[in-house]
Amino acid sequence: MSLAAELKGLNRKQVHSIWASYLGWTLDAFDFFLLVFMLSAIAKEYLPGMPTPEAIKQVSEATFLTLAARPFGAFAFGWMADRFGRRPIMMIVILLFSVFSFASAFAWSLTSLFVIRTLFGFCMGGEWGIGASLVMESIPAKLRGPVSGLLQSGYPSGYFLASLVFFLLFDRIGWRGMFMVGIAPAILVFLIRMHVDESPAFEARRHERPANPFGELARNWRIALYLIVLMTAFNFFSHGTQDVYPTFLKEQHHFDTHLTGILAMVGNAGAIVGGIGFGIWSERIGRKRAIVIASLIALPVIPLWAFSATPLLLGVGAFLIQVAVQGAWGIVPVHLNELSPALVRGMFPGVAYQLGNLIASRNLPIQAGIAEAHGGNYGLAMALVAGITAVVLVIWTLVGPERTDVDFLATENKG
User: Fold this and answer.
1) CA 305/CA 308 separation, integer angstroms
2) How far, in Å, CA of 341 to CA of 350, rounded?
3) Structure-derived torsion over alpha carbons of residues 97, 101, 103, 109, reported in degrees to the nearest 10
4) What angle do CA 350, 353, 358 make, to 5 degrees?
């Protein structure tokens, strides 16, 4: 059966669960990436007498704290999703991270901003794993690859949306006004409440005794360790090519708000193409091979992306590097769910993902430090992280396992 026919065969409830999870991840990423566009503005307000690269490095600690808090949220909310259901916990998570994004607008000091962004990160940590498990447990096996690519493209879609809002509104409303826009994801809760059903796999074991999450992690420690290392490489790959990019354009190339926003949108358009394209392709060539090919494509693109001098070449580089990076990432939702233990699928993929995020959470301060040590050369910092990570990701993916066509419902009943 063709992909188009498979998609047409989805019922309305399955379609609603896909779009709700996609939009949840989109708006989650939108809230996160608002901050990376405003590092310079926040640094100028809170650290006015400090040299710009050093001030940006200090403010970038907010992204570290956000990312570092995410695995704790993934565990807490993932455990609740395995116990009480994917749907209600997903709604709570979206409401909470929307509130903390809005609260960021009222930070009265750099320290208070750090605290609020840490709480935001804790809540944000629960969204990805729960949304991915809800969808993967609700759709036919043959659609997992394409839908995985769609779900993961929500991340660059959120970055694209943040780029657009920065382009349209930043010069008018400033960084505090930008954070106020972050309350928008809360609207998604009403869509979920009205149109999204609970995961069939969860419903099949609703009345069973809940699994002990620590026991499941201990019994599956080898695959857990493998996935944490894998997701560390993946997070360096994505954050290493995204987080410092607006600063690279503004501080190294001295581009204005509009050109910075346009180039960021171009990159994220490439990311959406890569995520969906490689997700579809993974059904034919396999998860591991798709990740490896996408990662290898990044290597020859790095010089064009990081060291070009004109907006046109920078735009081409931004598009192509994100095709590669998010092409690899497009396989992550399905790959992690297929490798996860059945009884803790609401918690396990999210915790592996976010622990990798925790280890990689120093990425932006590291890149800012490299740039500061080399006279504000953010392009060099981006190239070093992206190149090293692509090689590591290829090697680690090749040595790891792969499981396709897992029957999630049957596995749950056996669990």
Assistant:
1) 6
2) 12
3) 120
4) 115
- Structure tokens of 226? 């493998």
pTM: 0.82
Distance CA 253, CA 248 (A): 7
Pair of tokens at residue 169: 């509104």
Residue 233 amino acid letter: A
263-301 burial by CB neighbour count: b if 16+ within 10 A, else e? Answer: bbbbbbbbbbbbbbbbbbbbbeebbbbbbbbbbebbeeb
Q: How far apart are CA 41 and CA 56, in angstroms?
A: 9
Tokens 């600063």, residue located = 247
**Cβ neighbours around 94 below 10 Å, total:** 27
Which string of DSSP letters, residue by residue, matches 36-73?
Answer: HTSHHHHHHHH-TTS-HHHHHHHHTHHHHHHHHHHHHH
Strands (E), 254-353: none
Place of tokens 């796999």: 201
In degrees to the nearest 10, what's the CA dihedral of 402, 407, 410, 413? 50
Amino acid at 151: L
Amino acid type, 190: F
User: Beta-carbon neighbour count of residue 414 at 10 Å?
Assistant: 9
DSSP state of 153: T
Full pLDDT tens readout for the chain, 415 residues: 577 777 787 888 888 888 888 888 888 888 888 888 888 888 888 888 776 778 887 888 887 888 888 899 999 998 898 888 888 898 888 888 888 989 999 999 899 999 999 999 999 888 888 888 888 888 888 888 888 998 888 888 888 888 888 888 888 888 899 888 877 767 776 667 667 778 777 777 776 666 677 777 788 889 999 999 999 999 999 989 988 898 899 889 999 888 998 998 899 899 999 999 999 999 899 999 999 999 999 999 999 999 999 999 999 999 999 999 999 999 998 899 889 887 788 788 888 988 998 898 888 889 988 998 888 899 999 999 999 999 999 999 999 999 877 777 654 444 4
